[in-house]
Specification:
By secondary structure, this protein is α/β, with parallel strands linked by helices. The protein is built from 12 helices and 15 strands. The protein has a 7-stranded mixed sheet with strand order 3-2-1-4-5-12-13, sandwiched between helices. The chain has a 4-stranded parallel sheet with strand order 7-8-6-11, sandwiched between helices. The chain has a two-stranded antiparallel sheet with strand order 9-10. Helix 1 packs parallel to helix 10. The longest helix is centred in the middle third of the chain and has 22 residues. The protein is elongated and about 70 Å long.
Amino acid sequence: MTELVGNCLVAQSGGPTSVINSSVAGAVNEALNHECIEEIYGGLNGVLGILNEDLIDLAWESQQAIRGLRHTPGSALGTCRYKLRKTNDFMRILQVFQAHNIRFFFYAGGNDSQGTAAKISALARENDYELRVIGIPKTIDNDIIATDHCPGYGSVIKHISTVVREMACDHESMGQGDLVSILEVMGRNAGWIAAGASLAKRRDKPNDPPHLIYLPEVAFSTEKFLADVQRVLSRERYCMIVVGEGLVDEAGNYVHTSSSSSDAFGHAQLGGAGEYLRELIESLLGLKARTAKLGISQRAAATHASQIDSDEAYLVGQAAVYAAITGVTDKMITLVREESDHYVCNTGLANLSEVADAVKPLPVEWINEDGTSMSYQFVKYALPLIQGEVEVPEENGLPDYVRLGKTRIFRLLETHQSD
């Protein structure tokens, strides 16, 4: 195999996580080790940055800044939810790659982003342009198929479980058998995030909060919900509920959406499941209920980031570059859990076409028969992912996150015009 020589491009897409920048750090540091990669570019705001030829020189960033990415939340390169549809969009991507001799493309994102990477790879192949494309998985939703888990997931459930324990301390001091508290978390079509809140329970304490967990995988019944709440309040000072935003009724419809609009990929704008449950409790049970919605704070909580999660995010960034320089393309890096007494995780590869736009549901066998709690199998799966704490440096008592210098690459093409 003839060695491919040229520049590489790293970009991020979709909703950020608290560890997605660790993947960028891993990719940059690995790329610096290989002479076949001449320049290391970053695309600002995902494919939008490529369309606009908005590129930066990552090799010019200080090593301190690259190291700082490992404790900085958000997407340091910027992100987008733009879907490539138009013919001239695809051709523009290829023109930018050709103009800047980009031969290695690394795209960090979720299901939809892996689909975009697959299409870009196919386009290059159809036009006889040698390009190696590797997807880097990320999503707090943990719903990408072919990988044991996704970077970003361990940190979000560590944060949510911490919040549950802290709220429980508050509620224990105030509840008199009449307090209902509802925490709404993210999770469009799979209940991985809501399920992760079960880690807040102490070992051998099944009645610890969260007392009830409502998942998209279990059709919601108003009658059962009200009975569940009354059952908990008959034995506890308060009832704490965690609900995934993608909760559906028995007909498969979302119980609540924040608006009638959708994003570029056709996803409904969710939010409001917690308020829906609160209204049921107050109108049908006559109890006072409180709601909390973590929103984007749950995916940005770097102060609760898992060290395991951060390390694995860095690892998949490294593995993406190494795979590409050894001749691999059209693949996404996966995390592979080894069979051993102690948690061990390595990397593997999956076809981008296999991963694109597919969703991995929470296994129904990991949900207890009551439909509102998780089995031991889930805890065994999830608990290793939240271990360790990322050390976040402080300045004047507050987290000190990095900002990239973003030295721009000179544009070589005319401004892109959409169809």
